[in-house]
Write a structure and sequence with these properties.
Layout (H helix, E strand, L loop, with lengths): L5 H19 L9 H4 L4 H23 L4 H32 L14 H5 L3 H5 L9 H12 L1 H8 L6 H23 L11 H20 L6 H20 L4 H20 L8 H8 L1 H23 L8 H30 L7 E3 L5 E4 L1
Helix pairs in contact: 1-3, 1-12, 1-13, 1-14, 3-10, 3-12, 4-7, 4-14, 4-15, 7-10, 9-10, 10-12, 11-12, 14-15
Length: about 375
């Protein structure tokens, strides 16, 4: 099995909480800090990280002809689908319960016309223009698109195996040009696309993550000092890009630097971001991301009903409790739904022949 890159697992938690801060800040009713205002880029961080990690696990198998598409897709579905469906069902029940107790949660959640796309994880492919339901799940739909098309990414990566710097340069150029072109044509940044263009939004980030893994795989960053410098440089660039309002592609490329640097630190034996509790929080980050909006709805509307607090001007202490509370709720979801369902689905045994790109038998699963 490939090396367990614990710092990158921990990084997922910080990405999730960046998104949480972005969504929850309006409940305070005060001006949003610049770095929080860019919290939607936490999704881009997830997308780049996804390309890196999936390449780490599967790209060499693809190159060697031992990659099994059915096994790969089933494993990815087991990772994201149970929580997604559970929250869809939960939201329907929640809306019914809130209505019974006289809490109006709005009419933009239960959009029945988009339910087929929600169930098939195609809501970010332009097939559910009305959105609704659990809005963050659009990014899971985008991830599903990347999973389904992973062989296409792999076909492009393998010829660049020994030219990773060129691959990274091309991926970065593609990302920058696409962001500029999309913004000029659509009138809004690709990094703010969700339902209509979410599937496109993941493509440049996922490709960048794949190429960064190619570079990482060569051992180009050979010392902890250099790896620390790359990580710190990426983080500093990310903060500066948000504070000075630089184009989003600068921030995304900075996220790539953080991922590359942390991956190199792990490879060089560093223990940074590798403590068991940080890695555990990274493991529950998917549940954090998926449950944050339903939790925000229950918490803010609940206190509005109970003690007549304006959900758009919450006291700081109460707001902090809401932010912190998303973690234990996510832990419950992780242990009661995500992990058991994933383990159950992965019991399926793929005893099929895996063939390489030339069609020759290589290995049996």
């Amino acid at each position: 099995m490939p090396q367990n890159l614990k710092p990158l697992t921990a990084l997922r938690f910080f990405a999730a909480m960046w998104v949480v801060a972005f969504h929850f800040w309006p409940n305070l009713g005060v001006v949003m800090p610049a770095i929080v205002g860019k919290g939607y880029l936490g999704v881009e961080l997830f997308f780049v990280l996804s390309g890196f990690i999936l390449s780490h696990v599967y790209l060499e198998r693809f190159k060697n002809g031992t990659y099994h598409y059915g096994e790969f897709i089933w494993a990815r579905l087991a990772r994201i689908y149970p929580v997604h469906i559970a929250i869809l069902v939960g939201l329907g029940l929640l809306m019914a319960g809130l209505t019974v107790v006289g809490i109006q949660a709005g009419d933009k959640l239960l959009v029945w016309s988009s339910l087929p796309a929600q169930v098939t994880l195609t809501q970010a492919w332009g097939l559910a223009p009305q959105g609704g339901w659990n809005h963050p799940s659009w990014s899971i739909s985008a991830e599903w698109f990347a999973y389904l098309t992973f062989p296409a990414f792999a076909f492009l990566m393998v010829p660049m195996w020994n030219r990773p710097r060129l691959a990274v340069g091309l991926a970065a150029a593609f990302l920058i040009l696409l962001y500029i072109a999309f913004g000029s044509i659509a009138g809004f940044p690709l990094t703010r696309a969700t339902i209509l263009w979410g599937a496109l939004r993941i493509v440049p980030c996922f490709a960048l993550g794949c190429t960064l893994w190619l570079l990482w795989n060569t051992g180009a960053i050979r010392t902890r000092a250099i790896a620390s410098g790359v990580t710190l440089g990426g983080f500093s660039s990310l903060v500066a890009s948000t504070l000075f309002g630089l184009p989003d592609f600068v921030s995304v490329l900075a996220c790539g630097g953080i991922i590359l640097g942390l991956g190199a630190l792990a490879r060089n034996g560093s223990s940074i971001l590798s403590s068991s509790w940080l890695v555990y929080l990274g493991e529950v980050s998917f549940a954090v991301y998926m449950i944050c909006i339903p939790w925000q709805l229950v918490f803010s509307r609940g206190f509005q009903k109970l003690v007549h607090i304006d959900p758009e001007h919450m006291p700081v202490v109460l707001w902090l409790i809401m932010v912190a509370g998303v973690v234990p709720v996510a832990i419950v979801v992780h242990h009661l739904i995500e992990r058991p369902a994933r383990n159950l689905m992965r019991r399926v045994d793929f005893k099929r022949d895996a063939v390489n790109v030339r069609g020759r038998l290589k290995i049996e699963y």
